[in-house]
Amino acid sequence: MENLPLTFLSVPREGERTADKLCHKVNLIALRQLLTMGGGLPGRASESLRKIQFVLQQMVRETPKPVLEVISSPDIQIPLLVMAAGLRSPELLIPRIVPNVLAGLRHHRGLIPEALLWDHSVDEIVFAGEGRLCWQPPLKALLLDPAGLAVENERGERKNITSMSDAEDFNGASKGGLHVIGSPDLGLHLGLFDTNPLAMDEAHPDKSGNRISLGNHSIEDWQQSLSDALNLIQIALPTWYEELACTTQRILPVGYEPEMHLSASYREAPGIVYMTLHPDPLTMAEALIHETQHGKLNLLSWLDPVLHNAYSDWCESPVRPDLRPVMGVLLAVHAFVPVAALHHQLAVIDHPISRTRKFQDRRLQVLEGNAGGLAVVRDTADPSAFGKKLIDGLHACHEFVSRDYNLSGVGQQAMPPG
User: Fold this and answer.
1) Alpha carbons 52 and 49: distance in angstroms, whole number
2) 137: cis peptide before it, omega within 30°?
3) How far apart are CA 395 and CA 5, in angstroms?
4) Would you say 232 and 169 are in contact if contact means Cβ atoms under 8 Å apart?
5) What is the 3-state secondary structure (H, E, C) of the chain?
6) To 10 degrees, what angle do helices 219-236 and 238-247 make?
7) How many angstroms separate the CA atoms of 357 and 302, rounded?
């Protein structure tokens, strides 16, 4: 990649596993939450939970990998992290988590030492990589044993389930889909349902949450647009593209915006991003890089302070009406320095998209914003050792991709444009 600096949690080296290791460690935090959560459930459900936790503890001691694979599903990991952060009560989330855990464990039923009963009403189950089924009225109970997963309704009717399709015609189930984006090797899906408990909690003053919407466009439109964006990234930043397989699992559509682009991510949901559809493939590529970068820094924040003054020192931003903590500025430059690297590499290979005036204007806008944001971080941030490593890498990458531009007059009045 034309000697582009390959830096910590920004543009990775070939074969680098830093993001993968962070994902694993955060998954262990989710596992701990799963094995210790409790409270507020009716008697039979509480007994079921304790039994499931006991069996999972046995499995973790003997064969931890299958359990960790199950927990890594966003529909399990995210509510566990939300609970670990103290943002929702266990009694609200446990009934959502346990059915998904049992559905995931059906693939490893030969390792389960005894039958597991979830004696609680079930109104939805997510089958990892397949989709979600919802029931009204709810199911009565779930049973997982070495023979597989079985569901039972209030009439006492039972259905054995090996895949999601087995239960689609049972008890009036309704379906929410997952649709492959790009190469199947990426494991990336467009989701038409959302199990993130924080989806409507909004930090940006110009947005009001994230409701799933295709914006009057087809699934095929979304798949094509995102595939075009992924192709740009793969051509320009191949190692970043390869790392996507462990950093992002699902893209959730939140409408169509022809003039602007809105996206979002959450610290408690590092594997998913919310995006609006936009007609420009470069804009879509930028947004995917932007939000995935947030996810990588969010992963690190579960394990390290990154900045000791992350939310105690604040500054004004020319691109947002609200004050931003210095951590918010770091999140922005961490997201947009790789965007600048994308622009740089597209120009180096003389990609047709790089020959337009629009591209040149956007490239300069991003470089100026990064220069201003990095100046704020340099003057304000009090980084940890990992935070310093990350910031040093951002400076190195920024200096490389901006070396043909005179940004000496850019000050803190410029910030990354998003």
Assistant:
1) 5
2) yes
3) 10
4) no
5) CCCCCCCCCCCCCCCCCHHHHHHHHHHHHHHHHHHHCCCCCCHHHHHHHHHHHHHHHHHHHHCHHHHHHHHCCHHHHHHHHHHHCCCCCHHHHHHHHHHHHHHHHHHHHHHCCCCEEECCCEEEEEECCCEEEEEEEEECEEEEECCEEEEECCCCCEEEECCHHHHCCCCCCEEEEEEECCCHHHCCEEECCCCCCCCCCCCCCCCCCCCCECCCCCHHHHHHHHHHHHHHHHHHCHHHHHHHHHHCCEEEEEEECCCCCCEEEECCEEEEEEEEECCCHHHHHHHHHHHHHHHHHHHHHCCCCCECCCCCCEECCCCCCCCEEHHHHHHHHHHHHHHHHHHHHHHHCCCHHHHCHHHHHHHHHHHHHHHHHHHHHHHHCCECHHHHHHHHHHHHHHHHHCCCCCCCCCCCCCCCCC
6) 130
7) 41
89 contacts: CB under 8 Å, gap ≥ 6: 39, 40
pLDDT of residue 318: 55
Structure tokens at 57: 């503890």
Averaged pLDDT for residues 343-369? 96
The span from the CA of 285 to the CA of 282, in Å, is: 5
Which residues does 331 contact at the CB level (< 8 Å), separation at least 6?
294, 297
> pLDDT, tens digit, for every residue of 109-153?
899 989 999 999 999 999 999 999 999 899 999 999 988 999 999
Distance CA 189, CA 209 (A): 21
Taking only the tens place, the pLDDT of each residue in 55-91 is 999 999 999 999 999 999 999 999 999 999 999 999 9
Give CA–CA dist 79/30, Å, rounded: 9
* Pairwise CA distance, residues 157 & 380, whole Å: 63
Mean of per-residue pLDDT scores for the chain: 92
